[in-house]
Amino acid sequence: MHTTRDKTKLLARVRRIRGQVEAIERALEGESGCTEILQLVAAARGATNGLMAELIEDHIKEHVAHPDVSAAEREDAVEELLAVVRTYLK
Predict the structure, then answer these.
(1) First CA to last CA across the chain, in angstroms?
(2) pLDDT in tens, 22-37
(3) What does pTM read for this prediction?
(4) Domain 2-89 classified CATH 1.20.58.1000?
(5) Which of 38, 47, 72, 89 has the greatest CB tally within 10 Å of its CB?
């Protein structure tokens, strides 16, 4: 599975995102200016979007486009991905 294979890299990205969210918390607690807080939120959102994009790309490569995937497995993988994307875009 691609998430297991790339576990170290993915966890590093999640830890960076956690650090960014903690920076937002510190900025709010420290009563930083709204521009600084907005920039921190934008950076965290960008990092989260980047992680999502990487996971979607890997899912497509591994479970949809891979030549060893059966038609039934491919269909299931597409439906799972569409459900996640619908939730993500709400």
Answers:
(1) 27
(2) 999 999 999 999 999 9
(3) 0.82
(4) yes
(5) 47
Q: How many residues does the chain have?
A: 90
Gap between the Cα atoms of 85 and 81, Å rounded: 6
> Which pLDDT value is given to residue 1?
64
Let me know: does 35 contact 18? Beta carbons within 8 Å: no
In angstroms, the CA 63 to CA 54 distance is 14
Give 1's contacts (C-beta < 8 A, 6+ positions apart): 62
Higher pLDDT, 2 or 37: 37
| Separation of alpha carbons 7 and 14, rounded Å | 10
Give the number of other Cβ atoms within 10 Å of residue 2's Cβ: 16
